[in-house]
Automatic annotation (TrEMBL):
Protein name: Class I SAM-dependent methyltransferase
Pfam families recorded: Methyltransf_25 (PF13649)
Record keywords: Methyltransferase, S-adenosyl-L-methionine, Transferase
Domain Methyltransferase: 46-140
InterPro entries: Methyltransf_25, SAM-dependent_MTases_sf
GO MF terms held by the record: methyltransferase activity
GO biological process, one term: methylation
Highest rank taxon of the organism: Bacteria
Amino acid sequence: MIKSNVAGTTGYTEALNKFIEATLSIDFTLLHQDFISFIPKSPSRILDLGAGTGKDASALSAMSHSVTAIEPCEALLKAGKKLYSDRAIHWIQDSLPHLQYLDPELKFDFILASAVWHHLSPSEQHLALIKVSHFLEKNGIFALSLRNGPAGAGTCIFPTHTAKVVERAEQRGLKTLLILENQPSILPGKELITWSRLVFQKI
């Protein structure tokens, strides 16, 4: 079990209830409408990086997928286990970019990193892409959302750059399938937040 002092988790424990409320208000299909067509149709192995309270992991599990949820913040992980105790989600307290507690022999058909990348420093973002490529099956899909704007519940943030992510992903054998930039937040009061949504395939 890792310690809960991962820099990117700063602020979430203090804003736990508010963050959970906001998370539960978001419809999975609406939030990930650009990713839906890339999610495997048949039961597959899925990795949710930075799973938070497990809202996405739960939705993916309900599609009959085998879901591993990685979350570094102990408070969020405990909340997720309680909220979705009826789902067969394999929870691991771990963090990008190293994923030291995830079995290195595992391979996944679909990896999701939603609202995570901005909590990684530029060097960590680069290392995280290397790690994601390692854990993807050949022809596997990596769906990534990039956040830019002022801090929210998580106060340790860094800028994200779509072009740089695409360049580095392709250097790691990930083919770009989708680029959507400057997407607005679906939450009220987040007018200063913009998102990019990217999809890659391991070749």
